[in-house]
Amino acid sequence: MKKLSKNNWKALMLLIIAVTLASCNQHNKSTSSSKYTCPMHPEIVKNEQGTCPICFMDLVPMHNNADMKVAKDVEELLENVNQVIVSDVKTIYPRKTALSDTIILNGKVSYDTRKQYAIASTVNGRIEKLYVKYNFQPIRIGQKIMDIYSQDLVSAQQDILFLQKNGDKELLNQAIQKLRLLGATQSQINTLLSNKQIMYSFPVYSRYNGYLSDFKPLAKDMDSESLPLQTVQGMYVYAGETVFRIYDNSSLWGEFSVAAEDMKTVKEQNKILLDNKAYPIISYIPYFKENGNFATIKINLSKENYQVGKLLTATVISSAKEGIWIPEKAIFNKGTSSVVFVKQGKNLRPKEVIPDGHKSKNMIGIKSGITENDRIAENASYLIDSEGTIVHQ
């Protein structure tokens, strides 16, 4: 072996000392920065080895996360589960097109309540006899409906006969006017003046053509026929009380119920299609109730083609709406907002969207939130856990 010179030995010794010092410094740095924790209770952190004060397990060194590197293939798996979903569910692209919707409406034929007339008692009295037997019985002008006894009518007739006998024409005219206001016709007054016989039962005649009914709540029973009358002989009635109603059937109504989600479309169209004929909507009445919102619409119908009580099925075809359309099942409704799941790489991320209120069969129009270039999950319900909670970006 070749003998080292004095200078070479000096250089070698300096190198060994430098390496030794660097190693010691690194060891001291690692040792001074080491911390220990319990595997079962990570909240326990100490600067030196020992045992956990809770479970008495040996403490283990804590790793410095800054020195750890995660492979890109598994980095996505470590993200918040409420912000990203790793799934291979079927995805689709939104459609940018113009679509229209066909809405089915169910209803029935009913009477036109604008042609509803009331037969009211003009006096306090008792019904002596009825000449009608059942609800919705056909009635015509001048047909006798009932006979009524009233002490007011009897007293008014007695006054007329007394004044006629005494020849007081001024008071007689006033008494005749009073009897007329109590419901007597001019023909009945003339008969009284000529025969001089008091009528104890006054007949009541119809002034209208149509169908007679004595129902108080009519809405749900308009199509019920041959039902017994609630008004019976011997019943006492009061002045001004409506005893019967008469419905003129010269025109009829078609009444339809509209669900809350279809109200906007039906109102915009303002017409419906029934038996291949378009009918304008003459009445649109929205109702807001605890069990849901809906609307009732009405159209005019001809009595030659329809009968009261007949069930009807009509359609409303909306105008084609240009925009972004996605399947209804692709949206998850959170109550106050709606989200879809957008494909980003291998992941699906929830993104809020705002529907524009238009539908076409199983498609929904989107106002904002996504474009036709965004790839979304076809069925959002597959991506919701049992708690249904999503925190989106």
From TrEMBL:
Give start and end of each Heavy metal binding domain: 35-61
Gene3D superfamilies per record:
2.40.420.20, 6.10.140.730
Q: Name one Pfam family in it.
A: HMBD
Entry's InterPro entries? Answer: 3HB_CusB, HMBD, MFP_Cation_Efflux
Q: Which residues form the signal peptide?
A: 1-22
Q: Which UniProt keywords apply?
A: Signal, Transport
Q: Which residues form the CusB-like three alpha-helical bundle domain?
A: 152-198
The identity of this protein, by name, is: Efflux RND transporter periplasmic adaptor subunit
